[in-house]
# Entry
Amino acid sequence: MKPVAAILLKAPRPGEIKTRLAAAIGDGPAAEIYRTMVAHQLAQIPDGWVISIHYSPPDAGSEMRTWLEPILAGRAASFVSQVEGDLGRRLTAVVGHELACGVGPVALIGGDCPALSRDYLKRAESLARRKDLVIGPACDGGYVLLILRAFHPDVFRGIEWSTPHVLEQTIQTARALGLEVGLLEPLEDVDDRPSFQRNEHLLRAGRSA
# Structure
């Protein structure tokens, strides 16, 4: 089975998205950059992968479809509202929902890592055939990609979210559960002006392509 790309996204509302970046460049430009990054990310999803958009806030369903369906250009995608709660609870719900639908491995990603390329995702898919859990580390100590072949909710419990300890704690928890972990090279997500400037060339290249 091909993986399902479970993409966790927020409605691109100025003032409510990419707040650290917005503090440096303004709410409107930050929201527009987020839109560009999400479009770039959707273009990287390999052929054959299922696409499932998990969005917040809960009232943004129509807004998300209006925004993303033209970008998907006819490629099928489901739209699912995220549950309330911390990131661990939301990730648990996403994986549980997708696996209950009978899909293949669940690849959890966001929309703010321009370096998360089609090639990177294909290599992750290949690694997931041999490992229980595949992680694409983030340079800040979190992760930009996580693939699970089966439902292991404990992987998301006891994690200090939004800290530099997320990756380390996730690996420790997974190994304590007896899961084989596969790691790819670290990538940088965009949270502020310096990280955007370091990755802007990838978005320009994507628009040119």
Summary: The chain is about 45% helix and 15% strand.
